[in-house]
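Quick start: read one record
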Amino acid sequence: MNNPAPQTEPWTIQRLLDWTTDYFQRHGTPSPRLDAEVLLAESATCSRIDLYTRFDEVAEETTKVAFRELVRRRAEGTPVAYLVGHREFYSLNFHVTSNVLIPRPETEFVVIGLLDRVGESASTERPIRIADVGTGSGILAVCAALNVDGAHVTAIDTSEPALEIARYNAKQHGVTESIEFVRGDLLTTLDQSVEFDFVISNPPYVSEEEYQELDDHEPRQALVSGKNGTETIAQLIPQAAERLRTGGWLIMELSPMIAEPVVELLQVDGRFQDIALTKDLAQHPRVVQARRV
């Protein structure tokens, strides 16, 4: 009598996660388990937390097909945020596509710096005016509108596709009425009479040389500033000085590699004081703040 053929082990949620984590590790993915969980949750149309209660559940065929395609693209290098179309930032969920940078935890220090300075400011009857230069997906503009009472935010970007995503995110978070979206290059296209209390920005600050070492899935124009990495910031500093009210603040994210040159640019301009660098969780200088004299 012939022995029966061995049964194939079923693809449970647990088995899918374990196999994919190992697969991503072999492909050098930086966060293999997290990526596997996010992609499987997306494929199964559930939350990551829900996966933990479904480890023994056999995955549906539609889930396996969708998951297989996402895993393939992730192994080829496509960022998870682009695959699932969203990313968390400052405890909020934001829609993202390949037209914008993927929100990063380091950028939250710009929001924290803004809220700290708002808290120190003397109250006024007029709205606090904030310019978000290079808004991208709108994360800084939306967080400012949500957390600064009565704020009027101007969100600026050179990319119309990026502005469309920013508008969508503003609508999703209910702050459309608080944000004006402007297509333009830094602050040059704004009405010359408009003054701001705060200029915040996550500008391009990657040098051409640094860019050669980076994953190139994100939009180049949002990353690369030029040969030195300071070119965009060097343009923004004098423009911000012209547009900030006396006592207003310029708050920018930067690369630790250009922190000292940026401080020098602010000092040379001569219209800023109280220049300070904020370190990120890795203790690298990540945000610069400066007050308009």
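The chain has a mean pLDDT of 94.
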